[in-house]
Amino acid sequence: MFRSKNSAALPFCAMLAILSGCTQGAATVPNAVTPAAPRSIRSQPEAVIPADSTSILKKLNTDVLIGSTVDPNNGDQGPHSLAIVKLKYGLQKGQLLVCNFADSSGTPGNGTTIEVLNPTPSSSPVEFAQSNDIKGCDGTAITSGNQVYATGLSSGLMAWFDQTGKEQTTYGSPLAAPFSIGDVYTGKMYASEYLFAGDAQTGSIVSIGATGYASGFDVQVATGFAVGTASQTGWKTLAPSGMAYSRKGDSLYIADGVDNTIVEFTHASSLLVKNEIVVQPGGTKFKCLHKKTTCGKLVLSGSPLNAPVAMTILPNGNMIAANTVAGTSGGNVLVELTPKGQILDTKVVDSGPAPAVFGLAASGTNDNNTVIFYTDTNDNSVHELKP
Hints:
It is built from one helix and 26 strands. It is mainly β.
């Protein structure tokens, strides 16, 4: 059972809510997450997403500085992760949420703040939350109801904040060193919403089920990712290092910064059983309890991936991953690919030798209006790539 800061064990009703629709204790707020009915997805075929070979990166030739991510109160810096607010509720739709991984001296793993920036040039950061419970803040996710979750690599916790930045509770064991986070919500009526946290110490992915805005429960759903140290700069490469969810195919895409792979977990919203997917050594093969539905698939292995961390899904269903080790083409490289692993484009966004891009987020509705936001730890800022 997942342990939280405010309780010895999460309420039994929270577990029942996911399995049978119990909603006791769930807050009534706009766009609340509604528990799902008992799952029948295991008998359903995998969704097929039409191929789109259009390159978005090739269209995005203008790099705009949005603003600094340095916390105005304590000077935290080192932006990791990036999330876009989905609706106007406490926060404003389209605003950007960024975690600071370092403190004012630049010491990695000491940052404790989440910043909010408007998605326009010359934006100034506003502190959304500060807490030692997210020390080493390296991941942010925002739910369909503007509830914010953040992970702390140093604290070993995930913390839940409401739409005003007030901390509600924390989640600990079995998390030990959470390094990535993904929000899984299909958008369908009566669908549950889940958060998946990647743990760099155990190489596992832990699922936290949300019931309204009450506490949830977890199960460890995937294990076996490599964890280690590998790069010419001495930066510690961790896995699973990044996650992005595609609603179109109900797929969770995971970057493995050690094995240089991107893998897909099918029917991600149906992952509930401990060790339901086990990644085999090398990160390219999987053992699955339900092979026809929830299973792992290799999307891409090797070049041009080079210690990928940040990931985002584009409106057309393709994805972009950010390398954090300099390749032959220079510094931090964005890699655009299809769900089948076809490389569409690569783009250098920071030519420096140090890892810099730890947060990516795409915004738009079609190939013509898509833009990409990314964080850069070299200048402690958020940038926008646009046509």
